Amino acid sequence: MRYLTFMLAGACFSLNALALTPGNEPIQPIEPVEVADPAKVELGKQLFFDPRLSRSGFISCNSCHNLSMGGSDNLTSSIGHNWQQGPINSPTVLNSSMNLAQFWDGRAADLKEQAAGPIANPGEMAFTHDLALDVLRSIPQYQQAFDRVYGKPQITLDEVTDAIAAFEETLVTPGSRFDLWLKGDAKALNDTELAGYRLFKEVGCTACHDGQAVGGNSFQKMGLVMPYATLNPTEGVAGLTGNDADRMKFKVPTLRNVELTYPYFHDGAYWELEEAVDVMARLQLGRELDKVQVEQITAFLKTLTGEQPSFALPILPPSTKATPRPKPFD
Amino acid sequence: MRYLTFMLAGACFSLNALALTPGNEPIQPIEPVEVADPAKVELGKQLFFDPRLSRSGFISCNSCHNLSMGGSDNLTSSIGHNWQQGPINSPTVLNSSMNLAQFWDGRAADLKEQAAGPIANPGEMAFTHDLALDVLRSIPQYQQAFDRVYGKPQITLDEVTDAIAAFEETLVTPGSRFDLWLKGDAKALNDTELAGYRLFKEVGCTACHDGQAVGGNSFQKMGLVMPYATLNPTEGVAGLTGNDADRMKFKVPTLRNVELTYPYFHDGAYWELEEAVDVMARLQLGRELDKVQVEQITAFLKTLTGEQPSFALPILPPSTKATPRPKPFD
């Protein structure tokens, strides 16, 4: 009987919808996050939005991981201090706690380790950790908030990155239409979207794009079957290991909210989801998809857009006489 | 009896507190805003936060009028497209609806006229109005929102700036301690703050800094009694009129939330409120204030910090295939 249903499914869309059931799928729904320490999350949110963690006083975490825009900047590569062009596309911060490691090459083990990077990167926020700490220590409201959360006399980098990571861990996006379907709402997806999901599994996308985040849990070579043509010189994991086998190996990005996180791939070279689907199928799976198939998979991918984190814009405490001043132009 | 109270007031702080009563003051409290058209305000909020109104896709209204930071950027002068240094200090957007005109030189009659300026200014957002409209028209959710609010077939610049202005009109800051005092809460201010307020009136600050916004309702020459020394070449109203009498004439800024809107003056040359008070007294009023007097006025000024606008960070609708792409680096 199961076999028969499957056979019929090949011929008829409305039967397909019946044939697909959410049990035992390679993708799991995202659950709403439970906030263990609201004071820490609130502090982390302020830090995430505070441009005083940059040399210029102009760039915050939210500049390149904009929570109004899917946790990304929707640019090919990011704009850093003094309008420097970044080397790589800014990955979304949404659901990033589900990644096996952080950055495209996985060079940070977790969100806490990641958070320290851009602050001191001369091409990004171009500050120093010491100066960032001087800024925070000079502001009584920050000092009090750190005291409340960590109970130690002096703010440390470890605490700063811990608070930012705690905020970022709340940035999950449950409630997508696909998750509603996974949880048993058969009407949450239409026939095209279901056909796209079936294809997504059938052609092998779920080999890498699986789990809660629909990705983020392995490193893979970009251009497995056919090489990826790009002008971007980034070498991926090989940049860390020096190992030739790691050339063009990158962390598989999450496909959650992929509709919002254009342009695509580590080089941000593709702006349209249809193009990205086509490229992936050819280069990673050796499959030529036709137009209808690409549209079906694209339709499925758009059902992965979840509820965006909703919170009041944080109000930042003012600087004091002791606060190091921003230096945007020198 | 009134005269006697005044005489006593000079000698005794606790009697001063009794002597000052909120009636008939040169400053009026800010009232909470009543939103007439929530859909328009919500649309304007999205536009205010949308960096796609800039050529780079990186700079939004909120970049330089940051609502986490008193509606300003807390920089000497702002950072524009390609990291250009702006010519003047970014004025706060908070309570800006109370200004008699917009920009330091008043060249825009109102917020609606102002909003069009930075979008097309090559040193700021460096876009064109036509391209900004192309962006918005290419995004169905924006098109629907404009349809709902304005009921016309095509989005216009007039509608864009009208919606942004409607949002900005909600950015008022009632509930400051000074306003509580004005409304009859005698304990809202301490003796130092009240002494500062009395001095503020006595030395003549309220000649220009009065009304609901404690400023914003006249143009005055910067350096009335003694010239203002600055490296900033901006000429104020004379830049518009060519009239020598208008040299260094600027709109008097609001002092509401002045604790949050450092650095001060059109050239952003002074970072500390105490310095700004001292400079103003000497240059505008020909008065040398002693340290205690400066501290008292500063203490009063800090009571003008009101409730900051609180709202959920807007979520922006994604671009489509038809959306002109950002050009940060060409």
UniProtKB/TrEMBL annotation, chains A, B:
<dbReference type="GO" id="GO:0009055">
    <property type="term" value="F:electron transfer activity"/>
</dbReference>
<dbReference type="InterPro" id="IPR004852">
    <property type="entry name" value="Di-haem_cyt_c_peroxidsae"/>
</dbReference>
<feature type="binding site" description="covalent">
    <location>
        <position position="205"/>
    </location>
    <ligand>
        <name>heme c 2</name>
    </ligand>
</feature>
<keyword id="KW-0732">Signal</keyword>
<dbReference type="InterPro" id="IPR009056">
    <property type="entry name" value="Cyt_c-like_dom"/>
</dbReference>
<feature type="signal peptide">
    <location>
        <begin position="1"/>
        <end position="19"/>
    </location>
</feature>
<dbReference type="Pfam" id="PF00034">
    <property type="entry name" value="Cytochrom_C"/>
</dbReference>
<feature type="binding site" description="axial binding residue">
    <location>
        <position position="81"/>
    </location>
    <ligand>
        <name>heme c 1</name>
    </ligand>
</feature>
<dbReference type="GO" id="GO:0046872">
    <property type="term" value="F:metal ion binding"/>
</dbReference>
<feature type="domain" description="Cytochrome c">
    <location>
        <begin position="39"/>
        <end position="147"/>
    </location>
</feature>
<keyword id="KW-0560">Oxidoreductase</keyword>
<feature type="binding site" description="covalent">
    <location>
        <position position="61"/>
    </location>
    <ligand>
        <name>heme c 1</name>
    </ligand>
</feature>
<dbReference type="InterPro" id="IPR036909">
    <property type="entry name" value="Cyt_c-like_dom_sf"/>
</dbReference>
<dbReference type="GO" id="GO:0020037">
    <property type="term" value="F:heme binding"/>
</dbReference>
<keyword id="KW-0408">Iron</keyword>
<keyword id="KW-0479">Metal-binding</keyword>
<dbReference type="GO" id="GO:0042597">
    <property type="term" value="C:periplasmic space"/>
</dbReference>
<protein>
    <submittedName>
        <fullName>Cytochrome C biogenesis protein CcsA</fullName>
    </submittedName>
</protein>
<keyword id="KW-0349">Heme</keyword>
<keyword id="KW-0574">Periplasm</keyword>
<feature type="domain" description="Cytochrome c">
    <location>
        <begin position="191"/>
        <end position="305"/>
    </location>
</feature>
<feature type="binding site" description="axial binding residue">
    <location>
        <position position="280"/>
    </location>
    <ligand>
        <name>heme c 2</name>
    </ligand>
</feature>
<keyword id="KW-0249">Electron transport</keyword>
<feature type="binding site" description="covalent">
    <location>
        <position position="208"/>
    </location>
    <ligand>
        <name>heme c 2</name>
    </ligand>
</feature>
<feature type="binding site" description="covalent">
    <location>
        <position position="64"/>
    </location>
    <ligand>
        <name>heme c 1</name>
    </ligand>
</feature>
<dbReference type="Pfam" id="PF03150">
    <property type="entry name" value="CCP_MauG"/>
</dbReference>
<feature type="binding site" description="axial binding residue">
    <location>
        <position position="65"/>
    </location>
    <ligand>
        <name>heme c 1</name>
    </ligand>
</feature>
<dbReference type="GO" id="GO:0004130">
    <property type="term" value="F:cytochrome-c peroxidase activity"/>
</dbReference>
<dbReference type="InterPro" id="IPR026259">
    <property type="entry name" value="MauG/Cytc_peroxidase"/>
</dbReference>
<dbReference type="InterPro" id="IPR051395">
    <property type="entry name" value="Cytochrome_c_Peroxidase/MauG"/>
</dbReference>
<keyword id="KW-0575">Peroxidase</keyword>
<keyword id="KW-0813">Transport</keyword>
<feature type="binding site" description="axial binding residue">
    <location>
        <position position="209"/>
    </location>
    <ligand>
        <name>heme c 2</name>
    </ligand>
</feature>
